[in-house]
Amino acid sequence: MNVAIDIVSDLVCPWCFIGKRRLAQAMTLVRAQQPAVRFQLNWLPYFLNPDTPPEGEPYRAFLEAKFGSAVEAAKVQLEVTEVGRESGVVFNLDRIATRPNTLRAHRLIYRAQSIGHRAEEIEALVERLFVAHFERGEDIGDIATLAAIAAECGEKADEVTAFLESGEGTPQVKSLVDKVGALGVTGVPFFIIQRRLGVSGAQTAEVLAAAILQGMQTPPGK
Q1: What CATH code is carried by the domain that includes residue 156?
Q2: What is the pLDDT of residue 218?
Q3: pTM over 0.85
């Protein structure tokens, strides 16, 4: 049985990284009960901060402005780091210098999906982008950085560079963001199972698995 799962996320959202890992764990739980299941994942873009400048902004200043002080920002970072560790996610937040604009990174994912890359290749690209930002502190708004990441995932760096420099895919990504908003999604991660059942937030693997099994009981929506 094929099960469609749309994953709405932003690559600078730590809970989206946690949610991605928990979804993988949930799919393993479902396969244990339904060995014939085949998952069809579709990654949809979201902008947590649509007003982020194209070149990004200083990460520390962003956090302090968002949470009111360096002390409060540190508390939030500690919490998310501890939760991430429980899900196998490493957060090296002290390595992040720039809060990037994620349009280019979303365009890179859009390109991989639109030209028909295999599901495991797309998943590896998404994983690498999360790792780049949260573990390595790389600027995933930078074209050269994105081209290098894509090359690690089997792409040709020069082709990716040309794509990103051209602006191609920008209207399509922004259109997808608008469509996600029209569905009522106001926070991420957000999972849509069989195009019918929505699950909000980085739920546990067990909760996600139960939702997937529930979604499998009805035919997919349009």
Answers
A1: 3.40.30.10
A2: 76
A3: yes
